[in-house]
Amino acid sequence: MKIATYNVNGINARLPVLLRWLKEFKPDIVCLQELKAPPEKIPEDAISEVGYNAIWHGQKRWNGVAILAKNLEIEEIQRALPGDPEDEQSRYIEALVHGLHICGLYLPNGNPAPGPKFDYKMLWIKRFKKRAKELIKENKPCILMGDFNIIPAEKDVYKPERWVDDALFRPEVRKEFEELQKQGWIDAIRFLHPEETIYTFWDYFRNAFSRNAGLRIDHFLLSPGLEKQVKRAGVDLEVRGWEKTSDHAPVWMELEKK
C-alpha cells in the first residue's frame, strides 16, 4: 500500500499536476494540504474520475486539507483539531481508511517570529501534541502526516545557519517535534534513511530546486509498531520539476499492510 502526502499549493491552480501525479504514481491513500479553496470549489468530480474518493476541510483563499483514497472507503472522524473552538483555520482532518487511522495536517508556518503568527503556531502544536498523545494511548495503527512546517534537524535544510531565526527552525519548534517523537511517534523517512539528504520543499526563487537548496518539512509520524511494516519511502522529485507545479514534492511510503 502506497501512502503519500502532498502540499499542492492551490488545488485548482495545480489540478493538472495533481491529476497527472495520481494517474502516474498511483498512491492508495493521500493527504493534501494548502488547498486554497472553499468546499464548493473543490474539484471533486475530477478527482473521482481518476478513481479517488475524497473528504476535505476547505477554506477560501488559504489553508485547506483533504484525504483521498483509491477505491477505498473513507470514514471521517473529525475535520478540526480539538482544543480551540474559536480556531477557524482549516488545517486538520482525521479519518479511518483500510484499518489505518489517518491524521492529515497543515501546521501553521509561524513567520514572522516572534509575533502573533508564531504564538498561534506554538499553541496549535500544543493542541496537536495533546491529540497525538490520545491517539498513542489507543494503541491502534495511526499515521500523522502532512506539511508540519518544521525542519527537525540541521541535516534537513540546505545551509541551516541561514534558518536559525525562522519559525520553521527555531529551537522551541524543533523541541516540540522531538517531544512528539518521545510520545512514541516514529519519523518514517528517518527510520529508513537516517543520514541521507532528503528535501520535500524548494522555494520558487533563486533556482532553489535546480541547486537542491531545499527543506524537509513534510513528514510521516507512525504509531509504535507500524514502522515494521514500512518497506520503502521517498520523494517524487520529478513532480517538483513539472510545469506549474507546487513548491513541494509529494512524499510517499510503501506499507506492507497486515
From TrEMBL:
Q: Which InterPro entries does this entry report, sorted A to Z? A: AP_endonuc_1, AP_endonuclease_F1_BS, AP_endonuclease_F1_CS, Endo/exonu/phosph_ase_sf, Endo/exonuclease/phosphatase, ExoIII-like
Q: Which Gene3D superfamilies match?
A: Endonuclease/exonuclease/phosphatase
| Span of domain Endonuclease/exonuclease/phosphatase | 4-248
Q: Which domain of life is it from?
A: Bacteria
A Gene Ontology MF term for this entry? double-stranded DNA 3'-5' DNA exonuclease activity
Q: Which NCBIfam families match?
A: exoDNase_III (TIGR00195), xth (TIGR00633)
- Provide the family line: Belongs to the DNA repair enzymes AP/ExoA family.
Name the record gives this protein: Exodeoxyribonuclease III
This chain's source organism reads: Salinimicrobium gaetbulicola
